[in-house]
């Protein structure tokens, strides 16, 4: 009997997935109702330049990373050099 339930359940899932109309999610219904009364204002694709936080150049970030790695390598080499004497 459990095998028949699995087959029926599989059939129901295939039938449900093949439906032409699918009910929107609760969030989609909520936003549609909210926007019907108070539609959202158009937003630009990118934020305004004054609203964005200033960013460092990628070269500056790269230099900081390589400088930090070089400093660690030199420090470890110095510690090894001092330890061998």
Question: What is the alpha-carbon Rg in Å?
Answer: 31 Å
Compute the number of strand runs: 0
**Multimeric status of the protein:** single chain
Integer count of domains: 1
Can you give the mean pLDDT?
81
Question: How large a portion of the residues is in β-strands, by DSSP E?
Answer: under 5%
Low-confidence segments, ≥5 residues, pLDDT <50?
none
Category from helices, strands and their pairing: mainly alpha
The succession of helices and strands, N to C, reads: HHH
Q: For the terminal residues, how far apart are their CA atoms?
A: 82 Å
Indicate the percent of residues in helices.
Answer: 55-70%
The gross shape turns out to be: elongated
Largest sheet, strands/sense/barrel: none
**Helix segment count?**
3
Summarize this entry quickly.
This protein is mostly helical. It has helices spanning 2-17, 26-37, 58-83.
Keywords, separated by commas or semicolons:
single chain, 85 residues, 3 helices, 0% strand, elongated
Give a verbal description of the structure:
- This protein has helices at 2-17, 26-37, 58-83.
- The chain has 85 residues and is mostly helical.
- The chain has one domain (2-41, 57-83).
- The mean pLDDT is 81.
Strand and helix map with partners:
Elements: H1 2-17, H2 26-37, H3 58-83
């Amino acid at each position: 009997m459990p095998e028949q339930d699995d087959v029926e359940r599989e059939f129901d899932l295939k039938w449900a997935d093949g439906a032409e109309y699918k009910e929107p999610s609760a969030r989609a219904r909520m936003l549609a109702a909210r926007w019907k009364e108070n539609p959202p204002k158009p937003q630009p694709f990118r934020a305004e330049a004054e609203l964005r936080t200033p960013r460092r150049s990628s070269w500056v970030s790269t230099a900081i990373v390589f400088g930090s790695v070089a400093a660690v390598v030199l420090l470890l080499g110095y510690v090894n050099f001092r330890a061998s004497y």
